[in-house]
Amino acid sequence: MFVFLAVGLIGVDLYWAKSRDARAYISLLLTPVQWLVDAPSRVADEISDVVVDRTVLLKENEQLKSEALLLQRKVQQVAAIKAENVRLRALLKGRRLLDEEVKLVELIGVNPDPFQHQVIINSGFEDGVYEGQPVLDAGGVMGQVVERAHYTSRVMLITDARHAIPVEVNRNGMRSVALGKGVLTELVLEHVPDTADITEGDLLITSGLGGRFPRGYPVGRVVEVIRDPGKPFAQVKVQPTARLDKSRQLLLVRKGEAVALQKQLQE
Q1: Do 152 and 253 lie in a common domain?
Q2: Contact, 104 vs 87, CB < 8 A?
Q3: Does an H or E element contain 200, and which?
Q4: pLDDT of 11 higher than 60
């Protein structure tokens, strides 16, 4: 019966002109049924997409977090390299102003003893370092070499309580001696006459007296002059121009006599 019915419907569809319209109405009636039949499959696909999208998003989120951390590290390195480049440029600029031969070294250690202001550099007597050799940074005099090893040396900073350096006022040439007080940010001038021509803001440079430090290197700037009418000497406080607690790239200065002696030994 169903076979005859199917053959009859095929014949009607072929030879009846309005069969297409009838087929359209039948399709319209069957549309809700088709939608209901397809609904479970569609819901399953949407749930699958949500689960997959959430997993993908979590993975992408983790990946982005990792990339962000890497980028932050690179930014920090770029900032450090930029600051180091500025310091190196300042050092090289200072080198052009010096007549003495200089050597670029790096600070690799700090003496933990709070009563000794000393640092360690990465050059020793194998590199031609000698005791008493002046050490500078981009700002000025940092100290002098007091002890050598094969590939390292110990430098006493100018703020060490045992250190003294002959200086002069750059403005008028008045000479004095700057003493360390054991404080990284302060030097003092002792036995300065109360009537001496020295004021806040004066730049102090090495005077060259004593033969240890060549003349003309910045040492510090006067920050306070205390004059007591009852005392014959004024108390002068000086702030070092060198960045004693921050500099890593330093310069070793070799005087002309040391350079000439080393060349003779090499010959």
Answers
A1: yes
A2: no
A3: none
A4: yes
The answer to whether residue 111 scores a pLDDT higher than 50 is yes
In angstroms, rounded to a whole number, what is the distance separating the alpha carbons of residues 244 and 250? Answer: 10
- Among candidate residues 64, 97, 130, the one where a domain is terminated: 97
Together in a domain, 65 and 110: no
- Tokens 């932050």 locate to 72
Any idea which residue has 């001038």 for tokens?
189
- What residues make up the domain containing 40? 1-97
**Cα–Cα distance for residue pair 13/8, rounded to 1 Å:** 9
The pTM of this model reads 0.64
DSSP notation for 51-118: HHHHHHHHHHHHHHHHHHHHHHHHHHHHHHHHHHHHHHHHHHHHHHT-SSEEEEEEEEEE---TT--E
> Which contacts qualify for 162-167: CB closer than 8 Å, 24 or more apart?
163/117, 165/141, 165/206, 165/212, 165/213, 165/219, 166/206, 166/207, 166/208, 166/209, 166/210, 166/213, 167/204, 167/205, 167/206, 167/207, 167/219, 167/220
